[in-house]
C-alpha cells in the first residue's frame, strides 16, 4: 500500500531510500537492534526501512510510532503537571536501547505551522522535561556513541509551502524529487553513488587544508555575492563517522554532507 505522501515516487525508489538509511545511514550490523522513530503518516516508508534492516541482519526492529495530531492535542489540553513531566518508563527504554547499542533511524515529516495554535511556552516546558530526563542519551548521541540518522519524507502541507504556485499533487512530486536528489537516492544504485561521493572527500579535504584560504567567495546568477572569512589555521572536517563505530556512516539524508565551514581551529 502506498499512502498519499508516497504515491508520487515508485516503491522501488522508496526501497532504495530505505536501504540507504540502513546500509549507509547507520550501517546496521548483524544481530543489532534497530529503532525506527516515525510518525504514523509515514507508515509505508517506515515498514520498508524495517524490512531493509532485517535484511541487513538486525536482531529486532522496534517501531516507535508518533502522531503529530495527538502530540498537538497533548500540548493544547494536557494538565500542567503532565507538560512538565517526562515519565521514567520512557527514560528506561532509551537507556535499555543505549545499553545494547541500538541504531536509531528517525523519519522526519513535519508540517509547517501545524503547532501555531499551541503556546510556545508549553512546548518549551515539555522539551525541557524530556531533554533533562534523557540527558545521558543525548550526551551519547553528541559523542557518537549512538548510531543514528535522519531521513526526510515530504508531506502535502510542506510541499505547498515550498511550491505554492503548483497544484497539490505536482508540489508533492516536486518536493519528493528534490529530497531524493539531495539524498543521492534518485539513481539506480544510491549506495554506490554515496560510496563514490565519499571517495572524493579526502582529495577535497586535502586541497582545502593545503590551500589555507583567507576567505570563500560565493556568487550565483541570482545576485548572491557573499564573502566568508576563514581562520588563519584550520583543519577541514567531514562528517563521516568512523571514529568509534569502526565503519563509515552518514547521519542525515538529504544533505550534501560536506561543509567547508565544519572546521576545527588548531
Automatic annotation (TrEMBL):
Kindly list the organism's lineage: Bacteria, Bacillati, Bacillota, Bacilli, Bacillales
What does the sequence similarity comment in the record state about its family? Belongs to the peptidase M29 family.
Q: Name one GO molecular function term.
A: aminopeptidase activity
This protein's cofactor list reads: Mg(2+); Zn(2+); Co(2+)
This protein is called Aminopeptidase
Against InterPro entries, the record matches this protein to: M29_Exopeptidase, M29_N-terminal, Peptidase_M29
Record flagged with keyword Metal-binding: yes
- Organism field: Oceanobacillus jeddahense
Alphabetically sorted, this entry's keywords are: Aminopeptidase, Hydrolase, Metal-binding, Metalloprotease, Protease
Amino acid at each position: 500500500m502506498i499512502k498519499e505522501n508516497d504515491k508520487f515516487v515508485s516503491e522501488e525508489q522508496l526501497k532504495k531510500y530505505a536501504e540507504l538509511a540502513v546500509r549507509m545511514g547507520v550501517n546496521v550490523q548483524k544481530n543489532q537492534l534497530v529503532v525506527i522513530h516515525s510518525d504514523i503518516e509515514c507508515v509505508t516508508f517506515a515498514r520498508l526501512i524495517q524490512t531493509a534492516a532485517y535484511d541487513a541482519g538486525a536482531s529486532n526492529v522496534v517501531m516507535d510510532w508518533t502522531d503529530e495530531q495527538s502530540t498537538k492535542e497533548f500540548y493544547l489540553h494536557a494538565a500542567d503537571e503532565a507538560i512538565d513531566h517526562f515519565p521514567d518508563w520512557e527514560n528506561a527504554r532509551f537507556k535499555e536501547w543505549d545499553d545494547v547499542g541500538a541504531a536509531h533511524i528517525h523519519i522526519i515529516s513535519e508540517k509547517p505551522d501545524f503547532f501555531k495554535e499551541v503556546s510556545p511556552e508549553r512546548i518549551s516546558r515539555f522539551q525541557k522535561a524530556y531533554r533533562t530526563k534523557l540527558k545521558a542519551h543525548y550526551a551519547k548521541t553528541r559523542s557518537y556513541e549512538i548510531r543514528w540518522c535522519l531521513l526526510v519524507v515530504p508531506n502535502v502541507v510542506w510541499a505547498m509551502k515550498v511550491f505554492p504556485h503548483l497544484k497539490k499533487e505536482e508540489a508533492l512530486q516536486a518536493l519528493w524529487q528534490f529530497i531524493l536528489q539531495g539524498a543521492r537516492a534518485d539513481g539506480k544504485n544510491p549506495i554506490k553513488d554515496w560510496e563514490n561521493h565519499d571517495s572524493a572527500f579526502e582529495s577535497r579535504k586535502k586541497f582545502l587544508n593545503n590551500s589555507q584560504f583567507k576567505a570563500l567567495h560565493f556568487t550565483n546568477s541570482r545576485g548572491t555575492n557573499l564573502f566568508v572569512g576563514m581562520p588563519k589555521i584550520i583543519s577541514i572536517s567531514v562528517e563521516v563517522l568512523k571514529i568509534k563505530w569502526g565503519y563509515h556512516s552518514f547521519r542525515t539524508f538529504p544533505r550534501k554532507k560536506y561543509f567547508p565551514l565544519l572546521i576545527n581551529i588548531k
